[in-house]
Amino acid sequence: MKKILSYGMSLAMMATVSFSATSCIEETVPTNGFTEEQIKGSEKATEALLWGMPAKLNDINMFGDSRGFDWGYGSIMHIRDRQSGDCTRPYAGGYDWFARYEYNLYMGENSIFTQYLWNSYYKYVQSANEMIKAVPDEANVSDAVKGMKGAGYAFRAMLYLDMARCWEYLPTDATSNINADGNDVLHLTVPIIDENSTEESIKNNPRVTREKMAEFILGDLKKAEELIPNLEPSSRTLPHLDCVYGLLARYYMWLEDYPKAYEFASKAINETNTTPITEDQGLSKTSGFNDLSKWMWGIQQVKENSSVQSGILNWTGWMSPETTFGYANAGPYAIIDSKLYSSISKTDWRKKLYSPGTLDKNYEWYQTYAADLENMNITYDKWPSCVAIKFRPANGAVGDPNIGAASAYPLMRVEEMYFIKIEAAAHSDAEEGKEELVDFMKEYRDPSYKCTATSQADIIKEIVLQKRIELWGEGQSFFDIKRLDYAVNNAYKGTNHPTSGQLVTTRRPAWMNWVIVLTEQNNNAALVGWNNPDPTGKY
After folding, report:
1. Are 537 and 511 in contact (CB under 8 A)?
2. CA neighbours within 13 Å on the CB side: how many for 352?
3. Alpha-helix residue ranges (DSSP H) falling in 57-199
4. Which long-range CB contacts under 8 A does 207-216 form with residues at least 24 apart?
5. In a 10 Å sphere around its CB, with 0-12 CB exposed, 13-18 middle and 19+ buried, how is residue 14 labelled?
6. Are 425 and 433 in contact (CB under 8 A)?
7. Cα–Cα distance between 59 and 73 in angstroms, integer?
8. Quick one: residue 451, left, alpha or beta (phi over 0 = left, psi -120 to 50 = alpha)?
């Protein structure tokens, strides 16, 4: 078998591949003590598979050793944010394990950074397939089991919607849709592996078109919509009907069917019992953006998770600089792009989610906050400008990862639905979208907000800008930038991106068309010759 090249910034290593999407599908029977026959129709056994889906998103050390970017779905969210340009980190002597994704280095088929993304997603898909396969006959099971299967369809739809948007080739300014093998990969997504796939079928399983993938995802979402009202567990680590509508809203935005996106974003808002986070909630030192009850859907980590027990390979360890454990306060601070920070009005309470540093050193609220940090022995004086304090350690436990890292982070918030609805409206009627944006901002974020944009294109850009501010750190901006063909510029005057990350594109970046790892091509003949072009070094 060929080998994966795992590159450091100045060191090339060789790492053999231990598994691919092909090997993932071979584990058709879970190893939790139940046989397939026992699972069928058993609520207890099916429930074990149900909870296995969100648990899988917290898996760390996929490669069998500690790599700083290898800590589950939250890590992939952060990778998307780094590629959007909205988030950066100081390189900090090599402690920023995500630097290559921002610097567009080693993004080709023979890289461990590419392998991580591909293998992670298909590992998560496997857990959803096992859930769905466990209930082959919906007519002869309890309503509770039907609801669990509905959650399986929703999970799988979320994953394939992510994958379609990440791997689908869209035109760029640096690569061609006619790849090095002479094949046209425009609008090709990823191979579909479902609960009926066999070992033989996935050995010759091509990338599917946008249309075929859209049909598959919609099928899952319609089944989820039908079955998920029966789901009994109320935990928001599981999707419910509001989340299914939210996924449909994302789905129609991907397809640029804006009237449908508006419809389902509205349904999600009406169905959910969550409301936009208030200033007091968002700025809470103990529960700011770590409280699952405030969102439609999220990932909850608990002290038993290996990610929490690692002390460093978890969401809080990477995203909260207030902690004395983890990477976030050890040099590679999570930082909002300074241009994005400067676009936030001082009357908008979301500006308080970031340390102003020298940009706004007289910002009054920060003087009180700095005193609090000093009382907690946090070395805030070493922080550069724009360090994010959005995601707080659970219960304010800055020094104990067993408590502070046993936190939650969001997969879907109702605020996203408002912004989908607002943007979708603007595509049909720019003035209506502008009016809805002003209404939302004044009611929930900035009582002094004004939108000065006049053209439809500028109004949509302003809507997306406010959405990027709202969902900073939550992995969603990537999809809007890629969909709308927006450029990324990290090299403007006053940039806070490290020199190697100061890249400039004239339209959507080539690195947003993710590359399929070589080992998957070794196991799936239909992929040979049909990869996306390697974007490495193109800017």
Report:
1. no
2. 21
3. 73-84, 99-103, 112-133, 143-167
4. 207/167, 207/516, 207/526, 207/527, 207/530, 210/164, 210/168, 210/255, 213/160, 213/164, 213/168, 213/189, 214/164, 214/251, 214/254, 214/255, 216/160, 216/192
5. exposed
6. yes
7. 8
8. beta
Query: 362 Cβ partners below 8 Å, 6+ apart?
Result: none
CA–CA gap between residue 273 and residue 458 (Å, rounded): 33
3-state secondary structure of 213: helix
Contact (CB, 8 A) for 296 and 246 = yes
Q: Are 166 and 526 in contact (CB under 8 A)?
A: no
Question: CA neighbours within 13 Å on the CB side: how many for 361?
Answer: 5
The total number of residues shown for the chain amounts to 539
Amino acid at 224: A
Contact call for residues 220 and 153 (beta carbons, < 8 A)? yes
| Cβ atoms of residues 139 and 226 within 8 Å | no
Q: Which residues contact 83 (CB under 8 A, 6 or more apart)?
A: 101, 102, 478, 509, 511, 512
Q: Which tokens hold the place of 496?
A: 């806070």
Q: From CA 424, how far away is CA 253, in angstroms rounded? A: 8
Type of residue found at 103: Y
Q: What are phi and psi of 320, to 5 degrees?
A: -115, 105
Q: How many whole angstroms separate alpha carbon 94 and alpha carbon 133?
A: 43
Least Cα distance to 379 among 328, 312, 317 occurs for 328
Q: Could you read off the pLDDT tens digit of each residue along the chain, which spans 539 residues? A: 344 443 333 322 323 333 345 444 333 333 344 445 555 557 888 999 999 999 999 999 887 776 899 999 999 999 999 999 999 999 998 999 999 999 999 999 999 999 999 999 999 999 999 999 999 888 889 999 999 999 999 999 999 999 999 999 999 999 999 999 999 999 999 999 999 999 999 999 999 999 999 999 999 999 999 999 999 989 999 999 999 999 999 999 999 999 999 999 999 999 999 999 999 999 998 999 999 999 999 999 998 888 998 989 999 999 999 898 889 988 999 999 999 999 999 999 999 999 876 556 556 666 666 666 656 666 666 788 899 999 999 999 989 999 999 999 999 999 999 999 999 999 999 999 999 999 999 999 999 999 999 999 999 999 999 999 999 999 999 999 999 999 999 999 999 999 999 999 999 999 999 999 999 999 999 999 999 999 999 99
Q: Which amino acid is at 171?
A: P
pTM of the entire structure? 0.93
